[in-house]
Design a protein that fits this description.
The complex is a heterodimer. By secondary structure, chain A is mainly α. Chain A contains eleven helices and four strands, in the order E-E-H-H-H-E-H-H-H-H-E-H-H-H-H. Chain B is elongated. Classes of the chains: A mainly alpha, B mainly alpha.
């Protein structure tokens, strides 16, 4: 079993989902952004609200409570698992079984956040993320949630403008994906390196160079100009 | 380097994910890596302790220790890089290689490069690719194009997390101080770190610092290595090569593949021009993050209060009326008035809400009162027992069972009388003595259950009741008047007055 950064789930349909879980670096940065947003909101509130006298003070306390306890929960449940900080870093919270996080999960993980901050400065949470298998802090472990990198989606074929050349040998799915991957990334590779990689495929396709392999890739993704 | 033996899934990752990838490698080989870490840093720590105790500059020792700490980075990097490519390197091999590694990394140990903002990303160049001088700088330029920002990000995260662990440990220590001693023991505990006086305070500070570093320093090295590996995976399409080689292996069978497995020229000591291809498309560029950050700060809610201050005084009379605050402008007075109005409204609303809540609570008392008050009579009403011969609820039973039985008996309705006695006894046994019956229990099952779950005197009485009922119901053989009278007499002593 090769080491990877994913949390794998087998669905009842026999499909394996591979969720890329997010670790210490990205999560601390997202936390920092959220903390700055909350701080800024409180600073603005304490500049504006005094004009309302006692009501303002009351509102400020309410705002403080809401930011402290509800900010994360509301964003996580209503904004597809991402607070603004997480969104910026491309992270989102979900249940460990791959379903969207719900109210109870989010509330639990954000209440236990208090334990993660102990004994101050998030020391427990930091150590828990370092030690746990899927980079979970204690709140995540209690709620059964994980933080994953959001799938940005595939930008579509990036093979570029090239003639499609039919592949005459049978290929497994993994192998087709490798050829397509080569086709998409060949233009960004050093020319020598691309030729070297294409040369590896000589036993499979006969004499191939990088351009010809790209043409095969174009055919595999459904290029129209078959030859 | 042999890409076929690689022990981790290589694929182009996002930068933070790449750092996590490094963290995973550290976690997998934590036993070896921590052995290396302690074998290198503990002697350093020991040296630092001696210096604090005996050298004339104890104040500088912690800084000196910190400066030398990257000595451990080289061996850690040696272990994870070799283990990534399938070699089973252990701590001893890493230590044996340490002098050579240290020579290669000298600029990160002795020169201001020690303060390099992305040291863990830059060290693989000197150590794994063996570059120095101009060639190192050229190569670094290629890698830095896409990764430098994240290398710095990893360093920043590492420094702050180490700091927070440092303070965390201090606060944890403070948490063990009883409240009564906060201003004595607690205060001096903090002073140990704030203004260390004497060797013991300096040693304490050093140890806490060392503990925090031990948790995070290997992570830092691993994260930088992860970024480095990811960068090369993208630039040189390592993942595609791995897939191609697997394809060949499948095709030609293992023997032929082994023969064809020519070790690649992209070894760790590759040519810097090798990856010097066209610029990488910056799909994970820092610009994305910066743009989003800007968007956050453009948010309306984060603007200052300019709109509020634009308004100026118009009416002086109203100011005088206000309670002594001379500087208030008309607008402020208006805002305050609105505020007061809203707060009255809200207060009124809250009282109304409270009144409604109390009204609802009182109106629904019949629903929740039985739960909070101990009242057997009411509880009894909800009990429902299903027997083979039908179901028994409190409603179907009279309050005074023995009296009802005797009156039925006197009227000559013997079967009904004994049936009532039987059902009443079953109900009382379940309701008052907590006997549990299976659903649709027959008379025999009831007797067995009562015999198991109640004291023998009660069980004996229950058996007599059931026997009388069974003889009458199924055997058409009514018991004598005295027997029934005796049972009814004895009934309250076992099941009490249920009314």
């Amino acid at each position: 079993m090769l080491l990877d950064t994913t949390h794998n789930i087998a669905t009842p349909e026999g499909v394996e989902l591979r969720l890329p879980v997010a670790g210490l670096g990205a999560r601390s940065m997202a936390w920092l952004l959220d903390a700055l947003i909350k701080l800024a909101a409180l600073v603005v509130a304490s500049m504006v609200l005094p004009f309302l006298g006692d009501l303002g003070q009351g509102l400020w306390l309410i705002a403080f409570f809401v930011l402290l306890w509800l900010y994360n929960v509301v964003f996580e449940v209503l904004n597809h698992g991402a607070t603004p900080g997480k969104k910026t870093l491309g992270l989102k919270v979900m249940n460990a079984n791959g379903t969207p996080v719900g109210w109870s999960g989010s509330i639990i993980r954000n209440l236990i956040r208090f334990v993660d901050t102990l004994p101050g400065c998030y020391a427990f949470g930091c150590v828990a993320v370092l030690l746990s298998k899927d980079f979970q802090r204690l709140g995540d472990l209690a709620a059964g949630t994980i933080v994953v990198y959001e799938d940005k989606g595939h930008a579509g074929s990036a093979i570029g403008d090239t003639d499609a050349v039919a592949v005459k040998v049978p290929l497994t799915l993994d192998e087709q994906q490798a050829i397509v991957g080569f086709g998409e990334r060949a233009s960004r590779l050093n020319r020598d390196r691309a030729e070297e990689l294409a040369g590896l495929m000589t036993p499979v396709f006969g004499e191939v160079d990088a351009d010809r392999l790209r043409s095969h890739a174009a055919w595999l993704v459904g290029g129209e100009r078959n030859q | 380097m042999n890409l076929e033996a690689v022990t981790a899934e290589l694929r182009p990752r996002g930068p933070w994910e790449a750092a996590d990838f490094g963290a995973r490698m550290i976690r997998r080989d934590a036993a070896v890596i921590y052995r290396v870490w302690f074998m290198v840093t503990l002697p350093l720590l020991g040296l630092a302790v001696l210096c604090i105790l005996f050298s004339p500059f104890p104040d500088w020792v912690q800084m000196g220790y910190w400066w030398l700490e990257p000595l451990a980075d080289g061996p850690i990097l040696y272990v994870i890089s070799r283990r990534l490519f399938g070699e089973n390197t252990d701590a001893r091999a890493a230590l044996r290689a340490m002098p050579g590694i240290t020579r290669q990394n000298w600029i990160f140990l002795l020169t201001p490069y020690r303060l390099h903002f992305a040291r863990s990303l830059a060290m693989p160049l000197t150590q794994l690719e063996g570059l120095s001088g101009k060639r190192r700088r050229e190569r670094a330029k290629v890698l830095n194009q896409s990764t430098l920002n994240y290398g710095i990000g990893v360093t920043v995260a590492y420094q702050h997390l180490a700091l927070s662990l440092f303070f965390g440990i201090i606060l944890l220590g403070f948490a063990f101080v009883p409240t009564a001693y906060w201003d004595t023991i607690g205060l001096s505990w903090f002073e140990n770190f704030y203004e260390p006086e004497g060797a013991s305070a300096k040693l304490l500070g050093l140890f806490v610092f060392y503990a925090a570093q031990s948790a995070l320093h290997p992570w830092f090295v691993g994260a930088g290595f992860g970024l480095y590996i990811n960068c090369r995976t993208i630039l040189e399409a390592w993942d595609i090569e791995v897939a191609f080689r697997r394809m060949l292996q499948r095709r030609e069978g293992k023997v032929a593949a082994a023969a064809a497995a020519v070790l690649l020229a992209v070894g760790l000591a590759s040519d810097p021009a090798m990856a010097d291809g066209p610029a990488i498309e910056p799909w994970w560029d820092a610009e994305v993050i910066e743009a989003a950050e800007e968007k956050v700060f453009e948010d309306e809610a984060l603007r200052t209060m300019e709109t509020v201050e634009r308004w100026v005084t118009i009416d002086d009379d109203e100011v005088e009326e206000d309670t002594g605050n001379m500087d208030l402008s008309g607008f402020e007075v208006a805002v305050r008035a609105i505020g007061r109005f809203i707060s009255v409204l809200v207060e009124f609303g809250l009282w109304v809400l409270l009144a409604v809540a109390i009204a609802v609570i009182i109106a629904t008392s019949s629903r929740w009162l039985p739960y909070v008050r101990y009242e057997p009579a009411r509880r009894r009403r909800r009990q429902r027992i299903i027997l083979a011969s039908g179901e028994i609820t409190a409603e179907t039973l009279p309050d005074d069972i023995p009296a009802a039985v005797l009156s039925l008996w006197a009227k000559g309705e013997r079967r009904q009388a004994l049936s009532l006695l039987y059902r009443g006894s079953v109900f009382a046994a379940v309701d008052q003595h907590g006997v549990r019956l299976p659903n649709s229990a027959t008379e025999g099952v009831c007797v067995d259950a009562v015999a198991e779950q109640t004291p023998s005197a009660q069980a004996e009485f229950f058996r007599k009741v059931v026997a009388a009922w069974v003889w009458c119901a199924y055997g058409s053989k009514a018991p004598a008047d005295e027997t029934v009278a005796a049972l009814c007499d004895e009934w309250p002593s076992h099941y009490g007055a249920t009314a």
